[in-house]
Amino acid sequence: MRVYTPSVVVSPLVLIRRERRLPAPGDILVREGDRVEAVQIIGQAFVPGEFRILNLAEALGVSRRAVQRYLKVKPGQEVRRGDVLAARGGLSPRVCRAPMEGTVTGIGGGRLILEAPAQVVEVRAGCPGLVRRVIPREGVILQVSGALIQGAWGNGQEEFGVLRLLTDSRDKPLRARHVDASCRGAILVAGLLNDEEALQQAVEIQVRGIIVGGLAPELLDRALAVPFPVVTTEGIGPIPMSEPAFRLLSTYNGREAALDGRIHQGRDRRRPEIIIPLPAEPKMDALQFQPVPLRVGDTVRIIRAPHRGRTGIVKEILPTAARGATGSHLPAAKVQVLGEEEPLVVPIFNLEVLRS
Amino acid sequence: MVQDQRIGPILAIDCGTALTKAILLDQVDGSYHFVARGVAMTTASPPWNDVTLGIQHAIHQLEDITGRLLLDEAGYLILPQQGAIQGVDACVMVSSASPPLRAILAGLVPELSLASAQRAIAGTYTVVEDVLVQAPHRRLSEEEQVRRLLRYRPDVVCITGGADGGATIPVLELVETVALACSMLPEEERPRVFFAGNAALRQRVVDIIGGQAVVHSVDNVRPSLEVENTVGLRQELDNLYRERRLANLPGGEMLQRWLSVPLMSTAESFARQIQYLWYLDESPKGTLGIDVGAAHTVVAAVFGGQVHLTVGTGNGIIQGAERILERNGADALIRWVPVPLKPEQVRGILVNRKLWPTSVPQETEELWLEQAVVREVIRGVLGTASQVWKVGRVRPYPHLSPLFDPILISGSALAGAPRPGQIALMVLDAVEPIGVTTLLLDLHGLAPVLGAVGLLKPLAAVETVDNGGFVNLATVIAPVGTARKGEIVLRIRIHYEKGGHLEVEVPYGSLEVLPLPPGEEAVLEIRPRGRFDVGLGGPGRGGKRRVRGGLVGIIVDARGRPLQLPSDTWVRMAQVQQWLWDVGG
User: Which domains does chain B have, with CATH numbers?
Assistant: First the structure.
């Protein structure tokens, strides 16, 4: 029976295309075919600024309809802080002044809308690459050649920096003593993260990011609050980094990498990822990893306890459902994991195919 | 549209947030049966952005199971059937994979019109992002109201307030605020505005907002203090969901050509099926259907033929778990788990679960936790649902569940539990039914699609149910009353149709399972003690009931209503474990 499983890319060299979108419509500052650096600004968006709604009728003590007579400004007019917007003379004169610099964008119903100048938000490339396509006013599609490691969880931030491997094995945790002054500005790589002191030390030293296999659940809130990206390749818990991911990150120790810890679930599901740009031409395009049914010989990663994070080779897809420790009967496969004498029987729903 | 009388095999597709199911129904000896089901991961999200792929995967499985070729070489559904083993004659599809509508509610009195609007929204795939209240001492400044409307950029703003012919000025102030916010948004991002307030203001509302956004006036949700009318607003929201979400299902364009009836929301189809179940025997009690999905939980209750639909948007086992943690803390889940768990462990397990929504627990503590989530999401959605039920005498005890028979249980999280006893216990803990109730299990995930099948060919839906589409899980007897723990509150005599009988005395506080395997029938003679009520005519009254066997048998739930869990952690864990053992979980 054909069974399709999720897949995850851990590839030493692949063609990667990523969309960089502006947060609001704006100007794109690069052209198709341009080569860009990670820190290069590819576009700027104009995010609406602060606004005020001023109740002129109330301020002047007149009816809504009467406000029109006392206006000193017109829609579209720019004003400075303190400028008179409306004034009424007579026995009890009243004046309504602009509380801030801005543009009068609307007048009606006795009220006036004053909007501050739009804020300019600059968007950087985030990763060196080629501008493959420009989406006018919205963003660009960047093309990068390099290694790609898709992760499991991220804290929503992104950075670019030099990879710095701090543990010599995939199951060793990051310790505070590992994080010294030489780590400043680097993306730290370690087996796992379960030491709050190490996280604090990373904040103080001002690292650019942390990549680990698993993150202790008690550190979740802390990891969400740090000012740099944290990405786990395997998930939450005391899970060592998978062998293929650790090997790749070890190989490219000292190279620059883009670390993207943004993550969405549901309809907009996307994985956090690590891109290591390389000066080589890949044969494989990441987009070509189309879903195919699970096959004997596939390299897979186990995604649920008790073997979460372990990788192995599919030896057999069982013809009938297998009974698990919980008593459930589910389609399963035999997976030969490094270090285990016998293949593990794992529900197919708990396997993820590693694409490289 | 395919001619009804010529329809043979039917493919029914259920495209959920996490999983897509392809179900084959076909005639065997002239009557429709469930044949087989294929399941695959839904592919609505990146990198695929096309639900067709997941549907094709599920159909591939179906082909492997049945040996019937359903897709041609290009991946298109073979329609109509060719020969005996190729293609199908019709295809229907339901979906809950689209994101819900995002709404902002605006109104005057939280306990009146806003509460009514909330109840209207509860029956739709809509998330309320914020509520703007225009009541004295509770109102935000206009600036802050506009700021919120701009921040959330909702799909829809529902304005309520004022009984018909009642308040005008505060309602119009709200309308002006909404108009102002709309004017500050780019045209393509302006929300649809539904006005469901004082009917006398409709024209003025159109005059104020009409130039800034599309405004629809619907029946006032609270035309007077005593009267509530949620139908109009609910219908408009349903229409908008169809227009903006279902019609834009990624990859859905190709599927439209396969479908014999228009794509339907899963909740709507499920509600139709539960209504049909009620009509099967026109139960004097209510009929309840619960479908627990990854993102949403749907509850459909039918009383006197009238269906009440509640969509627990974002209250499925994946997204709902996060909400429970935020709102009620980990203890709300830990209380149902028979092993010690720390809050941070719970959070870790649930975060991982969300990362891989189609994965299944392999360790018992993770299984117990998932089942705890199921209990809590059902309890939460039932809490919302029960506010809109118009039940009359079917609810003899206002603080307890109405009388239901049957209760249909659907959704992978429930139906996929390893043991039937676990499924039954989850339902007992979450619903706390009273009286005598049959629990039906939708083992194959048919209920969410049969409503749509019924639109195409009613007989196919009817026959599929009649031919064992749903499985009898258990008959539950749950007496209402109080006594000392261990005191006998019920005597039951089971007269087995195959011969023989069994007599049991049930002590208060216990959970007992009595044997009655599937396919067998028996007559129950129930005699409650004292003022205990088993729903057979009032407190202290007993009677006879013919019942059918089920996967669990007959469960006597004498734990009391409402269910109380011991406060001491270790006692509670031992108790929860005991209940699991009692039902064979």
Answer: 4-97 (3.30.420.40), 101-244 (3.40.50.2300), 272-479+562-582 (no CATH)
